[in-house]
Amino acid sequence: MSYLNEIEKGKKYPKANKIASLAKVLGVTYDSLVSLQLDEHLAPLADLIHSDWLRLLPFDVFGLEPHDLLETVANSPVKLNALVSTLMEIARHYDMRVENFYQSVLRAYQEMHDNYFEDIEKAVEACRQACLLAPDETPDLDTLLGILKNKYSYSIDEETLPTHPELKSLRSVLLPNKQPTLLLNPALSTAQKRFTLGRELGYLYMKLSPRPYTFSWIKVDSFNEVKHNFEASYFSAALLMPRDAFLKDLTEIFNRPTWQPESFIKLMQDYDATPEMLMHRLTNLMPRFFGIQNLFFLRFYKEKAEDDYQLNKELHLAGLYNPHGVMMNEHYCRRWISLNSLKSLEARQASDNFQGTLCEAQISQYYDSSNEYLCISLASTISPTPNTNMSVTIGFLVNDVFKQKVKFWQDKNIPVRRVGVACERCTAQHCEDRKAQPIALENESKATRMQNALKQLIEKMES
């Protein structure tokens, strides 16, 4: 019985003579047991089994094994087929690709660990010792170049990428030859170059493979590539913003009774960090060392002179989901600090050729929710794509823990705004910032009214 059970779970694969014996006992033909064809109504399930998805799906992240799925296939093929068909339809409707799925899994993985990974922090400490760096040293560009060249025999090339216009948006390309060559985009800021070299050191020191060879992505081949890219990026941020020193600086800022946006700009300058590096490091350390677990991170892109805002990275800790990415073709609330900081940045750039980073804060009170967040946003131009601006925002739920740790939360100079999630779902009346009518909300309200009317009709007929 145990052998048959292992066959059904995909753990054992019987040879031809065993299959013949099974066919004889079951009263079926040998071909019916080994056929690669399923009935037409099980076509979606067949497509899944024949595809690379079973090999590519990161079952281990959630403590599962591929045979768990195969066991379900054996026990309830029709029900599983219906589920697979539903998921495929949802993916098609929302234009969801494999890399979107991998990014969703990665977010779940980060949220499971409160986005803090002690093993990577320890790897950074060990790397510091191996490279003769002081515990709180923030290695400069020359130091990182020296480590890669002398310790790992790297060649750094900043001349080749600009000669290929179609690759001008890439930050780096690794040519993994006998002597590895890192093609580095010369248009990057010093902070971006340091982060890119720190990532490379993370791949090497933690022996992460497989890995992507371009930064940013061109093609995603497996979840492990996505996960290793995240781990190398985490390593780089931890290396360039040492934990203990960074925590000390954050504590000093949060103990101030007034909101001082220049303190975050100075923090960026002290560590020669990009806005995104700074905000990501905050999401690493705030839950573990400040006890502030209810937070979110958003990254928006916007082409200059366009009114289209693209949310292309988000993270929610402690299961809080407002704000969040909205449905396709819906309009993000224009009252979000993330969007307003981009508008303010573009106005500054147009008026006085502003080249720096804009830091703004806002207390966001959500319609139809008791949740209130203190949001801090950093907006700047993206190198090497100067026609694109980016804002990164971290939002903290204003609760008792947050009030104890962040003294400036009640500074009267921080504006308070009522906000929604999407115009199509917002109950705000006479909103001057509205970009679309609340169609989705009206449809929900219509359905509720019909349900109430039906309930009253039934009660009347039964009385």
Reading side by side through the largest sheet, how are the strands ordered? 6-5-9-8-7-10
H-E order:
HHHHHHHHHHEEEHEHHHHEEHEEEHEH
Mean pLDDT value: 86
- Biggest sheet layout: 6 strands, mixed
So what's the overall shape? globular
Number of helices: 18
Overall tally of domains: 3
| Count of extended strands | 10
Alpha-carbon distance between the termini? 59 Å
State the helical fraction: 40-55%
Structural class label: alpha+beta
Task: Tell me the radius of gyration.
Answer: 27 Å
Strand fraction: 5-15%
Q: What are the low-pLDDT stretches, counting only 5+ consecutive residues below 50? A: none
Short description:
The protein is built from 18 helices and ten strands. The chain starts with a helix and ends with a helix. The strands form two sheets. A six-stranded mixed β-sheet has the order 6-5-9-8-7-10, with helices on both faces.
Commentary on this structure:
By secondary structure, the chain is an alpha+beta fold. The protein has three domains: 2-108, no CATH class; 116-240, Arc Repressor Mutant, subunit A (Orthogonal Bundle); 244-463. 48% of the residues lie in helices and 14% in strands. It is built from 18 helices and ten strands. The protein has helices spanning 2-8, 16-26, 30-34, 43-50, 53-56, 66-75, 77-93, 98-112, 118-130, 141-152, 190-205, 223-240, 243-254, 261-271, 275-290, 337-352, 400-405, 439-462; strands at residues 155-157, 172-175, 181-184, 214-215, 295-303, 309-316, 358-366, 372-382, 385-397, 416-419. The strands form two sheets. A six-stranded mixed β-sheet has the order 6-5-9-8-7-10, sandwiched between helices. The mean pLDDT is 86.
